């Protein structure tokens, strides 16, 4: 399979002087710099001097393989992930990066192509993932594609359509009480040799290789419109935020881009561990989370990756409430784009600070509307097809007839 | 907007000597050749001598605009439709054309970009569509994008998640009894001036311009793998079948391809108007339809476009039953691809005749699994997270631990 990768090893984000071999992926972060209260992730290092100049000249299209030199080894087959379009929304003056156009209709496919490749690379018989939504389904899809088994630890509160989704790829899906998921993830990994592709540390470190997949979002945006003034990113653990930032940072390092965009993390107001960590000057922290329908990004625990992305790009962490999310979601629908509530966080965040920008701005929309709470709960009222009845309905909707 | 179109007029499929001006689109088919029992559609003619040679040399990617010379005028803005990947399935030796990667996660976006452009071209204040699923949602999305109103006449039997989907783009959605939809479509078009983008004739003619959008599937496949031996297409009214065939036929006409693939229509065994029409030597006919979960393609009425595509390409109409569909759907899920049941008809059909082919074969998969009957009906059983219980579950699933 694909071994064009220029990856040279793993590097601690907690102490960039700490380096580790590329294999095995450090699925529990940096062992040396992590403390009882803060787990530091690792990232992947590359031989940047050997990046072929043609890499950024080829057309944008689907399949992460075209970016292989700047990704960890792609040992698991792809599903045509990435190559998603930028859609301009004139009313807001922004571009939407439409990640619902991935193989399982969310950005998570970019991560899972890489994380499942790591599982294949270490010869694991399968992967195990704790997720009540997109991440679990995506891991299941890539495991299936690679001929690996998959165990998804999901929670009973996942929306009904998402339950069908997660089960569609032949994974073993176990709905367990939410707090039991992480101890069980570690236990299953230990007892089965399955490779964990979601987080199991105190503050979030997640997969060592996975977030590298998100760099391709930056490469694609750069190929289409260059460097935008800012990126607004729905933020849970901050892996997407970090990956997109790192992609631009690499373009700067390679002499192709003058600077990175400012990275704006858009967290639900019900929680917001990154916002809290930045306010308190912490590398990462945890918060009590309140209720929100943006379940996909309502994380009680943050991660240091997000802090790095915001700090290095002179960005910010914004809190968006459910009313702002619902308005952004509805307005996107009225532009022909249907996303889940969490995915509207980018546009909702942008609207809080829109006056600060005059250059092009990109809001990342992560996932299709099918994954939302409430989907499938619409009880259609059957309308009498008599013309007088229908005409009244149309007139009520301001349609002249 | 985009007026690179080389479209010159409309031509009757019933009598190719009958030509009509390009505007207005003949939304009720060819008025001269249609009879009481058979409605003949029209297609769009182009000035093929003026097709720029570069047209087929540019990279495949999203947005129908790149094919503008061979499409009707694109007067409505796009959503990055098309540019979907071909995914190879080694177990079956086929390529899947993954149309779930479109803006509203089905092939219908290719048609609606073009059909809503026609509505914009005639200055209609909106569009009206009878559909219980993908077509209605897609029309609503493109109308919203173009700033046009949309009325969707849906049926109460549409799956719950699809009800949410169709309503997400701000259309006026009226659930009416199924047989009332077509008379109401005509009445609404007459009383409001809304442009109809679905069928309203005895046998199917559908929109005059819309199926031209499906030609881009052929252009994309050709750019990636050349001319496959055969295309297997989930078939309801046959617009997709015709459009994909016509795209290849144009490549032959332009001297770029040696022949078209053989076109295999894959209809649900519960109905199958094309299969019946071909067996009886009719241009198009209607059938009684029985129960099937492949609701997206269970059409009682066929259209002459499908007959042309099968006849001209020496193809065939195959009937696939729900067990064959369910097996193909499950196997695609086990390859990392989740489609609605109707979408699995291409692979199910191919499996009936696989021994006849040794060249590359493409099965078109039309739409994501979220649109299926039964989605959201999964009641997750909550599992006790005790390790002994979990271990037993894993062992039952053949996972060693």
UniProtKB/TrEMBL annotation, chains A, B:
<dbReference type="GO" id="GO:0006567">
    <property type="term" value="P:L-threonine catabolic process"/>
</dbReference>
<dbReference type="Pfam" id="PF00291">
    <property type="entry name" value="PALP"/>
</dbReference>
<dbReference type="GO" id="GO:0004794">
    <property type="term" value="F:threonine deaminase activity"/>
</dbReference>
<dbReference type="GO" id="GO:0003941">
    <property type="term" value="F:L-serine ammonia-lyase activity"/>
</dbReference>
<protein>
    <submittedName>
        <fullName>Pyridoxal-phosphate dependent enzyme</fullName>
    </submittedName>
</protein>
<dbReference type="GO" id="GO:0009097">
    <property type="term" value="P:isoleucine biosynthetic process"/>
</dbReference>
<dbReference type="InterPro" id="IPR050147">
    <property type="entry name" value="Ser/Thr_Dehydratase"/>
</dbReference>
<feature type="domain" description="Tryptophan synthase beta chain-like PALP">
    <location>
        <begin position="79"/>
        <end position="366"/>
    </location>
</feature>
<dbReference type="InterPro" id="IPR036052">
    <property type="entry name" value="TrpB-like_PALP_sf"/>
</dbReference>
<dbReference type="InterPro" id="IPR001926">
    <property type="entry name" value="TrpB-like_PALP"/>
</dbReference>
<dbReference type="GO" id="GO:0006565">
    <property type="term" value="P:L-serine catabolic process"/>
</dbReference>
<keyword id="KW-0663">Pyridoxal phosphate</keyword>
<keyword id="KW-0456">Lyase</keyword>
